[in-house]
Amino acid sequence: MKKFVKSIGIFLVLFYSCGISTTLLSINVKNQGGDVFPETIISNVTEDIITLEFQRSDGTLVTQLIDFRNEVQIIRAVILGEVERGQTQLQVMCFVNHFSKLDFISSDAMSKLRQKNPGTVRVAEEDRGYTNYTMNLFIDINKSLVISKHISTFCSEAAESTFTRNQDLKLWIQRPGTSESLIMTAVRNFTLPVIQNYNFNSTNNINNNNNTLNNSISTSTPKINSINKCADTSNLSVACSCSLELCIGWYPCGLKFCKSKNDGKKVVSPYRCGIKTCKKYYIFSYQAKMKQNCLWDE
């Protein structure tokens, strides 16, 4: 497991290695409980990705990767085991969802950020509340290249615990040049591949094939709500529906624009004058192989 990310005094570092331009920003963030922790945000303009990472007070390491080219967000959680309750190993889980480019500033804009007061404790300006994600599909990370090339490496330690949803597949399939058949073979439900019930007779026409796609996914994928919640299960060895809450306490969610004064002229020119910051809560529901792997959900 990665070590706790320490605050480093130099808050903006530029790397130029093998032609890759990377910017690292380290900030101090105050969470809802009043605790202050360091958070690092790395912008890779060449790959067009942003990676955000922090460690919670309970030791959980949370990493968010935004793949702008493929409209993919990956949130990885590395959770320490509770030794006193029989958990001798840490757990690694990845939650992969469709991502709107409007929900985060671009990697290029992120690379241009400067922090005048690096020691300042940051609090997000806007609370975007809670969003529930029912993760009802597994991703085969060995076949995940069609979704995002970053999944196989970023989630390499979560080969059996990388999840996504039906609605995310439907959005990714509509990306220009994306192969429907490869997308569908990259995921499976809890027992069988989704591919077995999918009809590819009109793979070149997304609009005409939408009903077929919707029906094939919904009929081949069991509802996660059909199994008992881990909170309601007493047997530690049975599969159950687990919920994990993660909060991204501070991130640049947009740009701010100010209006310039043009010496009395009627035309006002807006210019970029800062960033808007947000926080967001994610509640991921997914199938745990056994309640022993979901002891926090009680």
Q: How would you describe what is shown here?
A:
- With 298 residues, the protein is mostly beta strands.
- It contains five helices and 14 strands.
- It has helices at residues 107-111, 151-154, 166-173, 180-185, 206-220, and strands at residues 12-17, 20-30, 36-44, 49-55, 61-67, 72-79, 91-98, 121-122, 126-134, 137-139, 162-164, 187-188, 240-259, 270-288.
- Strands 1, 2, 3, 4, 5, 6, 7, 8, 10, 11 and 12 form an eleven-stranded mixed beta sheet that branches. It has a three-stranded mixed beta sheet with strand order 9-14-13, with no helix packed on it.
- The longest helix has 15 residues, at 206-220.
Describe what is shown at a glance.
The protein is mainly β and 298 residues long. Helix content is 13%, strand content 38%.
- Quick one: overall form? globular
- The helical percent reads 10-25%
Beta-strand residue fraction = 35-45%
Structure annotation, total helices: 5
The biggest beta sheet, please?
Answer: 11 strands, mixed
Tell me how many strands there are.
Answer: 14
List SSEs in N-to-C order: EEEEEEEHEEEHEHHEHEE
Radius of gyration, CA atoms, in whole angstroms: 21 Å
The chain-level mean pLDDT equals 80
What structural class do the secondary elements suggest? mainly beta
Q: Would you identify the regions where 5 or more consecutive residues have pLDDT less than 50? A: 1-20, 192-222
First CA to last CA: what distance? Answer: 25 Å
